[in-house]
Design goal:
Largest sheet: 6 strands, antiparallel
CATH topology: Chitinase A, domain 3
Number of domains: 1
CATH class: Alpha Beta
Distance between the termini: 33 Å
Number of helices: 2
Strand order of the largest sheet: 1-2-5-6-3-4
Helix content: 10-25%
CATH architecture: Roll
Shape: globular
C-alpha cells in the first residue's frame, strides 16, 4: 500500500494535478467540476461516463456514452471514491491496487496495478 501511495503522489506531482485529496484508505480523488446534486452511497445506482488507465497512460476501459452501474458491483475504489462526487460533478480517482483488483491480473490490467479513472457522475438514480 505504501508503494502505491508513493506512486500516486509521484504521478500527481509530475502531472501538476491540483486539489488532490488522499483518504485514510490511501485512495486519492480530485474534484475537477463540483456538482450540485446529491452524493451517491456505496449501494447507489449511478449514471456515469469514465476512462480508466494505468500510470503509464495505457487505457484499459472507457464508457464515452453514459452507462448505469450499481456501486455494489464495482471495485472498492469506485465505491469509496464516488461518495466524494456530487451529481453533475467530474474528477479523477487514483486507486491503490488493494482497492482495485489487487494481485489478480485482469484483461489489460497487470496484477498489483494502481488505477486512474476520469469520471463524470451524471446522475444518482
Amino acid at each position: 500500500m505504501e508503494r502505491d501511495k508513493q506512486l500516486i503522489a509521484d504521478y500527481i506531482s509530475e502531472h501538476n494535478i491540483e486539489n488532490a485529496v488522499t483518504t485514510v484508505s490511501g485512495l486519492t480523488y480530485v474534484i475537477q467540476t463540483e456538482g450540485t446534486g446529491k452524493n451517491p452511497t456505496a449501494t447507489s445506482n449511478v449514471k456515469v461516463t469514465y476512462k480508466g488507465y494505468l500510470l503509464d497512460g495505457t487505457v484499459f476501459d472507457s464508457a464515452i456514452t453514459p452507462i448505469t452501474l450499481n456501486l455494489q458491483s464495482v471495485i472498492q475504489g469506485w465505491r469509496e471514491g464516488l461518495s466524494h462526487f456530487k451529481e453533475g460533478g467530474s474528477g479523477m480517482l487514483f486507486i491503490p491496487a488493494d482497492y482495485g483488483y489487487g494481485s489478480t491480473a485482469k484483461t489489460n490490467i497487470p496484477a498489483n496495478s494502481v488505477l486512474i479513472f476520469e469520471i463524470a457522475l451524471i446522475k444518482v438514480l
